[in-house]
Each structure stands twice: as C-alpha cells, then as structure tokens.
Amino acid sequence: MSVDPVGAGRLTRPSSTTRPRAVGLTAAALLAVAALAVASLCVGDPLLTPVQVFDLLRHPDASTASIIVHTLRVPRALLAIAVGAALAVAGVVMQALTRNPLAEPGLLGVNAGASFAVAVAFVGLGLHGFGTTLLFAFVGAGVAGLAVALLGGVGRSASVARLVLAGVALGAVLSGVTQALSLVDPAEYARIRVWEAGSLAARDTPVALLVAALIAAGLVLAVAIGPGLNLLVLGEDAAHSLGARVARVRAAGLVAIVLLCGTATAAVGPIGFVGLLVPHAVRAVTGADQVRTVAASLVAGPILLLVSDLLARTVVAPGELSLGVVTAFLGAPVLIALVHRRRRPS
Questions:
Q1: How many CB atoms lie within 10 A of CB 42?
Q2: Mean pLDDT of the chain
Q3: Which of 4, 68, 86, 110 could be a cystine partner for 8, CB 3.0 to 4.6 Å?
Q4: Which residues, at least 6 apart from 15, have a Cβ–Cβ distance to it below 8 Å?
C-alpha cells in the first residue's frame, strides 16, 4: 500500500490476482530490452557476435572493434533506451492531462520549440557543436512548454481545451518561423533537416549519460504523479471531489513532459509517434490504470526505439535511414486506425 505523493488524496493497493501475470510480462519485457540492446551492439560494420561483444565489454583493447563498441554502439544503445522510455512516458502523461487518446508530446509545442532554438543557433549564431545543439534544443523545449503553460493556465481555472489550443498555436508559429530561418541559408537548412530527421548516431558516452540522468529525473516525476493522473482522467470535477490536487498534478505533468520530451528531442532530434504508439499498445495489456501504463511504458518505449534503430541501420545497409522515418512508418498506420475507430458511432 502506498500514499499518493502529489496529492491524489487516496491510498493505492496493487491487486494480488494480477501480480503473477504482471511479474511475468515485466520479466519478458526486460529480457527483450536486454536482447535488443545486445543486438544493437552487434549490428554494424564490423558485424560482431554476442560473445565478441561481451568479451570487448569486459576486456577493452586498442582494436577497431573495441573502439567502435565503446565509443559508438554503447552510447547509441543507452540513448535508445533512455529516449524510448522518455517519449513513451511523456505520451502517457500527455494523454492523461488532455484526456485525449490521440495526443502526443509534440502537442504542447515542445518539439517546435526545440527546432526553433536549434535553427536560431545554426542560422543566427553560427553554432554547430553537439553540446550547443543539446543546450539550445533543451532551452527551446523548456521555454515553449512554459509559454504553453502560461497561455493555457495551470491553476484551477485552466481548461484542457485552452492548454491544447495554446500548444497547437505556438507550435504552428514556431514551425513557420523555423522554416523561414532555414531558408535564409541553404547550407544551414541542410543541417537543420538532418537534425530534425532524428538520429542516435555520433553521440559519445558522457553525452549519453547526461541525457540519461536528465530523463531519469523526469521519469521519477512521471511515476510519482501516476495516482493523480488516474483521478484526473475522470474529469476535473470528479478529481476535485475525490480529493485530487488538480493544479498540482497538472503542473507536475507539464514539467515532466518538458523534461522528458525536451531532453529526448535535444539529444536525438524530434522523433514522432513513439508517444502515441507505445501508450496504446501498453493499455491493451495494462488497462486504463495510469500507474501501470507508466510503468509498462518505461520498458515498451525502449523496445520500440531499439527495434526502430535496428531497422534504420539494416534496411538500407551500409546506409542508414533516419530514425524519425522508421518510427513514422510504424506509427502512422496506428494513428490512422485510431482515428478511424473514433469516428465510428458508439
């Protein structure tokens, strides 16, 4: 039994009848993440076996294979796990806050804010380093999220409709300005397009660890507000009557979304559909409980991104597809199916 740490105003008790099944599914999912992570370390040029990878991890040397594994593939796998979890959990929180199953983190203008900030860094300031990109993208995502919160409101008088409209409007404005900045300099436009396509490549271990630490903080916050989200999805009036601190839950949710989606976008570029696809796939198993959905998304998100990255690296080998293209290819049919289902009369 646990107490809601963000003011949901109730005690939560896990069901003993579903515990064995949940433990089995969790173990299977964690094994899948581990297997996919090992596959990510093996795939590429040179192609390695799992035995070779484990040997290089335990006994690094000066060989080309060891350098590639430690400096390129390990950070890539770590980023895939962290970013997948971040985007998936951000999608769960976003859908709970807006009570819209078609919502995804970009709806709050976070991706548009990050893209705008990167365009300013590239075109306006002539800065191209990855550290600069990470900093500007994160700041842009945070400022965009704060602006949406101020426009939509986070107090008791705020409404979901105002929040969504503010995010869509700000995202449209920032996207238009970003396109205008991109067209000023064709060379910088090409750089921006490469970043916006999304990629896990060319990231070193310190960057991956920094990103993982920031995302971990956002994940802790998202897990903490899970019970509050369970009440918020019932509607604000019902949540108030059940003792939930709606303003506090909503504000914490916005911070979690900005921290998770902003860090992920800053690290690898805007990756679409993960925050839409994973929550719906997870709810088929966990049901509507937001606590279980958040917990399951922590594992399902990395699975999706690791699979997408493996496809991006193997489908057109020795070339590589953009990660955003692969996730869009996987997520677009799901979005179409969801829209079609919601158009059916009850």
A1: 18
A2: 80
A3: 4
A4: none
pLDDT in tens, 18-27: 566 667 778 8
Token pair of 19 as six digits: 């515990």
Burial state string for 319-336 with b = 16 or more CB within 10 A and e = fewer than 16: ebbbbbbbbbebbeeebe
Buried b (16+ CB within 10 A) or exposed e, 188-208: bbebbeebbebbbeebeeebb
CA dihedral 29, 30, 34, 40 (to 10 degrees): 50
Record the pTM: 0.83
More confident residue, 342 or 139: 139
Rounded-to-integer distance, Cα 311 and Cα 327, Å: 10
CATH for 162? 1.10.3470.10
CA torsion angle for 153, 272, 223, 341 (degrees, to 10)?
80
pLDDT tens sequence across 242-288: 667 777 888 888 888 888 988 888 888 888 888 888 888 888 888 88
Band (148; pLDDT cuts 50, 70, 90): confident
Q: Tell whether the torsion through CA atoms of 79, 84, 89 and 95 is positive or negative.
A: positive
The domain in which residue 287 lies consists of 2-343
Closest listed residue to residue 199, CA positions, set 324, 65, 67, 62: 324
Peptide bond into 60 cis (omega under 30): no
Which phi-psi region, left, alpha or beta, contains residue 155 (left: φ > 0; alpha: ψ -120 to 50)?
A: beta
Query: How far apart are the C-alpha atoms of 216 and 104, rounded to whole Å?
Result: 20
Rounded (5°) CA angle 314-315-319: 70
CB within 8 Å of 254: residues ≥ 6 apart: 97, 108, 145, 148, 149, 154
CB atoms within 10 A of CB 120: 16
